[in-house]
Write a structure and sequence with these properties.
disordered N terminus; 2 strands; mainly alpha; 140 residues; two-stranded parallel ribbon
Length: 140
């Protein structure tokens, strides 16, 4: 696992790419994923953590400074570190995630007529709920 030390940051997953075009591609993709992750904080159907984790991977391949910013960010850095280091999630985060997930899925089910889409959304909701319930609960 990564050494948190006093700076509370994760170690970089790999050395950044030597190719400038590839670095810029991963910085742009990581920034897009951070934007989607921020939207996921406010929109119930979008999970935020998975997008922040993917952004961390992109930043790890391109920019140590961007990676450090993401993993030490005061708004979501702690949640990202807890999840990535397999420590778990707080009960409040679990309840909020599961509640917003099912509210969003329920709203979507109301407006969608296609049975196969409704079944797929239900399966995704069940799988995410099971995953969140099985995550270790952190008490703070």
């Amino acid at each position: 696992m990564a050494d948190l030390g006093s700076s509370h940051q994760l170690s970089l997953p790999a050395a950044p790419s030597r190719h400038r075009l590839i670095r810029w591609f991963f910085i742009a993709l990581g920034s897009l994923l951070v934007g989607v992750g921020v939207l996921g904080i406010f929109l119930p159907l979008l999970p935020s953590t998975v997008f922040f984790l993917m952004a961390a991977g992109c930043y790890g391949k391109s920019s140590p400074a961007a990676y450090r910013w993401l993993t030490t960010n005061r708004f979501f850095g702690r949640h990202l570190r807890d999840y990535k280091e397999e420590r778990g999630a707080t009960m409040g985060a679990k309840v909020m995630s599961i509640g917003s997930l099912w509210a969003g899925i329920g709203l979507s089910e109301y407006f969608i007529d296609a049975l196969w889409i409704r079944l797929a959304l239900g399966l995704v909701a069940i799988a995410v709920t099971v995953h969140l319930v099985l995550l270790r609960t952190i008490s703070r």
